[in-house]
Design goal:
Distance between the termini: 16 Å
Number of helices: 11
Largest sheet: none
Low-confidence stretches: none
Shape: globular
Number of domains: 1
Structural class: mainly alpha
Mean pLDDT: 82
Strand content: under 5%
Number of strands: 0
Oligomer: single chain
Length: 281
């Protein structure tokens, strides 16, 4: 069941990222992040009130708050990267980064997924080099700055995965509420400080709001998965989310990739699978 939940989570995350990325091409990335966080906050509040879970102690709320702070950095960085580069480059880089760090955390906590995990990490490094365009040519230019933002987003997502994994089952979805209180506050403060505009083209705010609903849904599914399985197993399956993002980019945006990039995406998928198999061994 944890693997099935993680796979569903990956699909939902991927669609959310695609919608957020498209919205960020029509409006400032900070504005897209803010709208998405607000809509996801509303959904989280509705869910906890409907379920009736008691408000947990500070332990779970603080872990949720850490996830919220990381979410503010991760989403703003991710949407910025998607709006300035190819989804087929940004998404895999972010995914590999967000998978490797929680696996390392699991190892430090005593998890021993096996030798395949180490092989997967080496493969992941090669995948990043290929997908990021360090080798071969890119059909859509993706500058170094954009790649840095993609890595920063991956780091933020890794912190989210770890922090939510530290919450207890009895807390229900309340950690997601505390996460959104923090993330909305942080992003709103940055928007005000930088005087970020609130207007976008082509209904960008509606697409951003939908991305937020999907993101919160994926977060809820992730909580269910990680509370039933090992972090090192669940997170690498969840990190397969670029598959749906890239499929949408191919099908709807007609993005193209070079042979080296295609090889890199295959290696990225292989790296995530190797780590997952190692965790299941």
């Amino acid at each position: 069941m944890p693997i099935v939940l993680a796979a569903v989570c990956a699909v939902v995350y991927g669609v959310a990222d695609y919608c957020g990325g498209r919205s960020a091409r029509r409006a400032p990335s900070l504005f897209v992040s803010l709208v998405g966080q607000i809509s996801s906050f509303v959904l989280a509040v509705i869910f906890v009130l409907a379920v009736g879970t008691a408000v947990p102690g500070w332990h779970d709320l603080l872990w949720g708050a850490l996830a919220g702070a990381a979410s503010a950095v991760a989403l703003a960085s991710f949407y910025h990267a998607l709006s300035h580069g190819a989804m087929t480059v940004v998404a895999p880089i972010t995914a590999v980064t967000s998978a490797v760090i929680p696996v390392a955390f699991g190892l430090l906590r005593g998890e021993r997924p096996g030798a395949l995990a180490y092989i997967g990490m080496v493969v992941a490094v090669a995948a990043v080099a290929l997908v990021s365009g360090a080798v071969g040519q890119r059909h859509i230019a993706t500058g170094r700055g954009t790649i840095v933002f993609a890595f920063l987003a991956g780091l933020g997502f890794a912190v989210i995965f770890i922090a939510l994994g530290e919450t207890r089952s009895a807390s229900g979805m309340w950690p997601l509420v505390s996460a959104r209180v923090v993330s909305v506050t942080v992003i709103a403060s940055i928007c005000l400080a930088t005087r970020t505009g609130v207007r976008g083209r082509g209904g960008a705010w509606r697409l951003a709001a939908f991305a937020g609903v999907l993101d919160m849904s994926a977060n809820g599914i992730y909580l269910l998965a990680v509370r039933r399985g090992l972090l090192s197993i669940v997170v690498v399956v969840v990190a397969l989310y670029p598959v749906s993002t890239v499929c949408l980019a191919f099908g709807l945006d007609r993005e193209r990739v070079s042979r080296s990039q295609a090889a890199g995406m295959v290696l990225a998928l292989g790296a995530l699978v190797l780590v997952s198999l190692s965790g299941a061994a």
